[in-house]
């Protein structure tokens, strides 16, 4: 039996990798397990897309700004590390859809664009009478046949018609994935809609039946959560908790090899010329990076052609008096039928009041989506000018911003195209056969949201622990 201590290496220090490393460390202590844990991150900081800037009293998120409260893993993790007292729900308020040059209130009761309150749907001027009649066909239309994957666009167009899709569903879903809904996989993104249709036949009736009962007349909590000190503070706290984990920053994993002396032990070649030995490895890097690491092993090959969209966030700070047309609400999404470059805008000072000093306004806009990414490569001042021109049409802004922060995310939004789940399953099986004890997890694979990434990191952590403690023992 080998006397060498077992080693688990986590590659990638975004929220998935952090969650994996923390869970491994905690389980090791809880069950008195004897193995080493190392986290390797190619950049000089942890957190991946989570980046918070504090400037002049503002708290500005450059990447994600929150997560869905109903997905509990992120909040549970915050509780575990003693950070839950900083959680805050978003302020509720009217949200809008911009079609042509008009802001239309989001119809009441709509769930991801699916109407559940017929009265509100009939009253809205977001759709023509023809569009409303077409959407009503959902009540009598048969459910989809078969269980094969289809695009989000095809599914929703069949049930609700083009107008509802173009003016409501597409802007909402594109805001999440920055993708083309006519290419995105239904089963990899929103399989629950397929399940509702299969169970209730009518998507509208099914969503209405599944909606929670009306709450008593108390102040409604927002659906999203963040931390009063910014998401970066959560990352920093998680990093502090990794007291018995070796954290290596600024070093990139270039490839993986099997050790000559043991087919169940691996060697990671690093770009600084050094190597890391491992018995189990969790790769939480983007799919493009992962496919490169395994290129010479002819694994994860389908991920080479998996698209990823480039986007940019544009945060602008103003004095309150600069906004001459103040609109009551929390923000808007933009229909593709409108002549605007921005895809969405959050009135951050209203949605997250803790983020903005008194007497100030903070607007956070988004540019870039599938098929329209060129704007992301423009200079900061050009992007600022384009975004400001768009905002002036809507809000009548009289001054230039006090400051603007432009953040580019190149190929940062993985696109789960039709057939994604089947391809992922096949690639995981090939990886397991060729490199047992090596796992992949992260936003490229099974969910973009922060809790989705935490779930994947923790699941991979348990798999890795099981492998080194119950499977190969170093013989």
TrEMBL record:
GO terms for biological process: heme biosynthetic process. Transmembrane segments: none annotated. GO terms for cellular component: cytoplasm. Keywords: Cytoplasm, FAD, Flavoprotein, Heme biosynthesis, Oxidoreductase. Its EC number is 1.3.3.15. Its main location: cytoplasm. One of its GO terms (molecular function) is oxygen-dependent protoporphyrinogen oxidase activity. It is found in: Cytoplasm. Pathway: Porphyrin-containing compound metabolism; protoheme biosynthesis. It catalyses: coproporphyrinogen III + 3 O2 = coproporphyrin III + 3 H2O2. Gene3D superfamilies: FAD/NAD(P)-binding domain (3.50.50.60), protoporphyrinogen ix oxidase, domain 3 (1.10.3110.10), Protoporphyrinogen oxidase, mitochondrial, domain 2 (3.90.660.20). Residues 15-462 form the Amine oxidase domain. InterPro entries: Amino_oxidase, FAD/NAD-bd_sf, Protoporphyrinogen_oxidase, Zeta_carotene_desat/Oxidored. Its cofactor is FAD. Pfam families: Amino_oxidase (PF01593). Involved in coproporphyrin-dependent heme b biosynthesis. Catalyzes the oxidation of coproporphyrinogen III to coproporphyrin III. Belongs to the protoporphyrinogen/coproporphyrinogen oxidase family. Coproporphyrinogen III oxidase subfamily. This is Coproporphyrinogen III oxidase. It comes from Jeotgalibacillus soli.
